[in-house]
Amino acid sequence: MDTETETLINGERLKPNQGLPSNSADGAIIYDSSHFQLRSRDRHVSYGSINGAVPLLENNREPEMPGRQSVTFRRLPPEMLTTLSSQFESLDYEPWESRVFKEENSRKTPSSLTKQGVIRWVVVFFIGVCTALIACTIDICVVEITKLKYGFLKKYIDKCVTENCLYIPYLQWLGISCGFAFIASLLVTYGEPVAAGSGIPLVKCYLNGINVHRLHRLKTLFVKAAGVTCSVLGGLAVGKEGPMVHSGAAVAAGLSQGKSTSLGFDFGILKEFRCDQEKRDFVTGGAAAGVAAAFGAPIGGVLFSLEEGSSFWNQNMTWRIFFCSMVSAFTLNVVLSAYHGQIGQLAYDGLLNFGKFPDIPFALLELPIFIGMGIIGGLIGALFNQMNYHISVFRRRFILSRWAKVLEVIVVCSVTVTTGFVMIYCVNDCKPLGAKDDIDFPIQMFCEDGQFNAVAAMWLQTPEASVRALFHDQPGTHNPLSVGLFFITYVFLACWTYGLSISSGIFIPALLSGAAWGRLVGLGLYRLTEGAAWADPGKYALIGAASQLGGIARVTLSLAVILIETTGNLSLGLGLMLTLLTAKLVGDCFNAGIYDMNVQLAGLPMLPWSSPPLCYGTEARDIMSKPVVVLREVERVSTILSVLEETPHQGFPLIFEDRFASPQGKQNSFGMLRGLILRSQLKILLKEKAFCTSPTGGTSQTPVPLETFRMYYPRYPTFQGMHFTEEERSSYLDLRPYLNPTPYTVPMHASLPRTFQLFRALGLRHLIVTDDNNEVVGMITRKTLARYRARICCGTIDFVELPLGGHGVQL
Amino acid sequence: MDTETETLINGERLKPNQGLPSNSADGAIIYDSSHFQLRSRDRHVSYGSINGAVPLLENNREPEMPGRQSVTFRRLPPEMLTTLSSQFESLDYEPWESRVFKEENSRKTPSSLTKQGVIRWVVVFFIGVCTALIACTIDICVVEITKLKYGFLKKYIDKCVTENCLYIPYLQWLGISCGFAFIASLLVTYGEPVAAGSGIPLVKCYLNGINVHRLHRLKTLFVKAAGVTCSVLGGLAVGKEGPMVHSGAAVAAGLSQGKSTSLGFDFGILKEFRCDQEKRDFVTGGAAAGVAAAFGAPIGGVLFSLEEGSSFWNQNMTWRIFFCSMVSAFTLNVVLSAYHGQIGQLAYDGLLNFGKFPDIPFALLELPIFIGMGIIGGLIGALFNQMNYHISVFRRRFILSRWAKVLEVIVVCSVTVTTGFVMIYCVNDCKPLGAKDDIDFPIQMFCEDGQFNAVAAMWLQTPEASVRALFHDQPGTHNPLSVGLFFITYVFLACWTYGLSISSGIFIPALLSGAAWGRLVGLGLYRLTEGAAWADPGKYALIGAASQLGGIARVTLSLAVILIETTGNLSLGLGLMLTLLTAKLVGDCFNAGIYDMNVQLAGLPMLPWSSPPLCYGTEARDIMSKPVVVLREVERVSTILSVLEETPHQGFPLIFEDRFASPQGKQNSFGMLRGLILRSQLKILLKEKAFCTSPTGGTSQTPVPLETFRMYYPRYPTFQGMHFTEEERSSYLDLRPYLNPTPYTVPMHASLPRTFQLFRALGLRHLIVTDDNNEVVGMITRKTLARYRARICCGTIDFVELPLGGHGVQL
């Protein structure tokens, strides 16, 4: 019996601590825990070592392949943009094929499967409807309150222009805007910081497989929706489309679980969807619905979700996502049509409706112009991102306290209002009234009677309306000088605004500033060609907008489709695509896209699209983390407790007890692989006290059912409040019913690309590295793989290894 | 030395044949080859056994998991619709990470990567252009010759109606049509039988990973393009859209290789794209371009290719596919616009342009009607498929000789023409001339002056024009009786026609017959509601067309998007989707879609979307093929020759020589896994005579470079013309530089769903089943997995195991 107190960690049968009485084995952890440290910068020990006994893997391995040329990854120093945070864990996308799972599965009947399938469709339907309703609510609130705000201001401006009291409307404007900005900022800063920004990067990360905490809570949803409404009402240079995508994702996560942990109620339904895999599938649909509602682009929504979310194509899921998108677009259309008094007309395809472009004459010779505009957009975008990066770094260093964040929002808001007011005051761009009749509040300012100030028209409306105006106004409507001035000021304001502690999207600011310079190009061409039919400034405004968006966000395919759907013009599709691609290529030569930069700044270990190129010489054993903390199939409770307390790992390979003593392979490995168990499962088993007294395991015991595991999802028990008696500590936990007996493994000689592909294509969380005898030699996780990057530009490749930092042990 | 003549097959070291002199070891194969037989119906031996020594795997395995409930798969008897053909092999989608590959890879520079990337885009550009040009050529030929044909006929009909000699235009019509049908049939039957039918099922199979022979040859492309032109000109109930997709795929496969084996020339360029993986990526783009050209749906094209082709999402590849689609749609637009005299107008989005639907009033209460129509479409579609199945089975049994196939085409063509003529003669549906002016050949027949025969208008134009007419004509244009009669005759003709030995698509016939009954429903609603605005017969014709297509083809998501794009109406999208989904669900209760039925009839081992449900109790060892034919790393030439001659396998696991003799695991396994080698590689190595004399392998020898392997791609050497001297036969082949050292493996206890997912997500060809010691115990290939199916309908699941038949050893 005494030999059973030996601890099997790191592949060494450690000598039991002879001096201690056997009943105190729990208190006295028999390995020296002081040796345990997370040497995060040593790439071979990043997975942690408990007793420091690093196996001599390098000395006794397979003969080296002749001519193997491993790429040298340049290790980057830890700094703001490059450090991956270790606190983010992956989602479990694979079904956990334990014995309890299989038993539950074998009890399922075809009719229960059908029922579950039907429920999925019903849930998806409601996700679509709710997402659309939230989007409608935000939109209608913004439109109505904006009308009130600018109507009020117009009254005072009109009055004060004659009475020479313009400081009054200025102060009113300042007050109203800062008031809303203050609320927006308070909500995010003090309410839910994860609701800051666009939300698209975080949703992308979630779909990529990263478990971002608090992302889908009810509170987050509320803060996001109310926050973005206030930000837009505050007149800041922000859009509301990104937050709508986040809202859709949060709605999906909430509705699909049939409970709200925040509010503390549980409908007791949809219990079978309480796992990462199902939840992520629903969130995929919710994000698509958000895109469909925000941009009126259901196909783009599907592509967005698939592109970011799907490891591989699942036809049924894709149909559901598509249905969700369609329902969302349809609901929005019904509600908005009714709101605009056209019940049943279905005239409002989406919130960001650019207005249909009629058949635009479009000649082949324009393609080079589009490419040229793509280059400009790429350059401006790269500059924008670089500035925003420096601002973000500044913020991270110096704007740390909550009140400072709120104050910054107020400052930005004041500057925005002041800039707008000064421009309206100084630039006297007068146009005759009635030339276009969709301006809500034509302000005369110093213009003659029957004219209005065109600059004021740009500032005193929602950014969406300004984009539409730049796209569709007649060639003579805008003065090049005022458009140019507007572009410069707006692009700086947008750059400063993005990253503030408010809910804010970058889509609309990018499109608006792009449309401004695009229109300038179009006006130039229009004058050069003396009004040729193809030199339509509106079309060039669209190309400029696409180019700017491509340069800033480095839009992916789905965003290209969204733009094409939003403009409703397929002929221009090729032009848009060329522009977007050029802008992306040019921008990528300088820095990353703004979303990727956000992800990197947050240290999120998002897996890129593909493994670094030319890395076939780098093998799994070069990048894997080791030593590995392993457990036995039937393990002593005290050992499990110690391991959980002293290591941050989320998954533990289990090894065969009896094969462990075999002399061969001992030196190199941590034992023969038996399965894998997760930290969360161990915690639940400890909480449930599913212990047995025999070290061979209790086969007669009824295992903890899967329902219990689902009950705890997604907030697993913590050790606070868990107490174990001495007896419990010295008893055993039989892990065999719960372990995944066939976890994914990779041979240690497998190349980095092959490892990467396996990990990414299957959406894995843990990949165990084995040697030729199927013994555990290392572990590869998302953070391992995410560290190895290649930056390709201008014919050179820079191979880098990102540092890992900010370890936080989550219990 | 003598012991080296031992053969290592099936995990047993066989005793050398002592009586033979060592120099005749080649002639006398030392295992008893008479034992070798492919017991295809025994599921455990489907991979073949050479010496019949089946390891005692079942007796000595891991302890059974308590409560494991393996699903019982009902073994189907071999019959036409259920037997999988064993002659189709998979494509190699994974890069073959051998030492020679890695060495070549490590010699690559970033600039060579960039160059390769640029070349890919250029190739993709030309694929798009060429696909569009071929589509244009087909279309213009069809339109022009149709004009001549029907113009000619109109002249004689008009003349003969008065002169009472209508048999003359009938015979003329018959003669012209049968002439074209005869050419169409000759081309396919005697030219290239693989060009028969739509091509979409075969392209889907290729993208799924099946190596369909002769699918992408130049000859196939020519026969397909010329054949479909003749079929349509023959007035048969066929469409030209499916063949265009196939043409796009063939163009891509041809252009991307830089050589034509058919014509025997080699430009010597694009050599790096000569492998299955690269070729398949290009074909994905080509198929998308084909869809874009045929339907004017670039996004639908991308989705089509991704849905069928991509194991997982690759952003770069997706961009290229999208670009290819866009270029194709754009080129087609430019050419067709120029052809129609509107140079630079870009007014022709695609060949199958249904004509834009303007904003159709569309009420929520119509959704139930759409669902009802979906049910009707599903029922009609199921009936259609069932009839077509029986016709196909009849054809397979009785219409075997080539001339019989040609004769059948002539018969069908005659019946089609006669039916059309009789209908025109008998049904006197007169409409005033000028009500619509897009009829090319209004035929008066027995109508009064100033009127034309509406039935004749339906028959004497291309099917595409008829679809447009049914969608867009005013409510009063068509007589319900004649539309109903047209529907019934056309649906039967289409059913008989599909599957003939001609190039023919099913898309247009399905849409046309669906539009006919849909319009009837619309006309009924129009009369019931006394002309309500929403009861637009054109809209219902569209819904009917979608429903019929959904019922026949069980359209997938991409086809839904294609329909939405083609109609250019997003509002109706939800309606279309509901209809399509309903039709699919209803139809699936009765039989498979027509494309799937084609695939099954051809015995193609296409992998379904997901593994059968509820199968977590079934493990890899239950389905794997064994025994496995294994080779050593350095193997005797005579052994390799024998193995290649006597087994049909395409991949051979390699085992460690030295570990083979180890006592443990011997009983259960075929040896410890060292790597995998392909039959094609062995054949090339034999052809190149890369032999060495030492059984330990020649390390000093320069290995055969990868370029040599590419040179042979895709038609590998055969044994005809290969001669080996006695000395060569007794020498050795060192396989170590060419083997894949880390092939994908799966533990034998892994569940069927997990195995399936691994295989499908990574696009594998061979999956080696290993035991806990990493020793080879079995093999899983596409054909293994494709055999296990589940048919779900009406709350029950039927688990079936398809038989495997028609083994053909390909050398």
Walk me through the structure.
Chain A is mainly alpha-helical and 811 residues long. Among the domains of chain A are: 365-602, Orthogonal Bundle (Clc chloride channel); 620-660 and 667-805, CBS-domain, CATH 3.10.580.10. In chain A, the strands form nine sheets. In chain A, strands 3-21-20 form a three-stranded mixed β-sheet. A three-stranded mixed β-sheet of chain A has the order 11-13-14. In chain A, a hairpin with a 2-residue loop joins strand 1 and strand 2 (12-13). The radius of gyration of chain A is 30 Å and the shape is elongated. The two termini of chain A are 31 Å apart. Chains A and B meet through helix 1, helix 2, helix 8, helix 9 and helix 17 of A and helix 1, helix 2, helix 8, helix 9 and helix 17 of B. Chains A, B: The chain crosses the membrane at residues 118-145, 166-188, 287-306, 318-340, 360-385, 406-425, 481-499, 506-528, 540-563, 570-587.
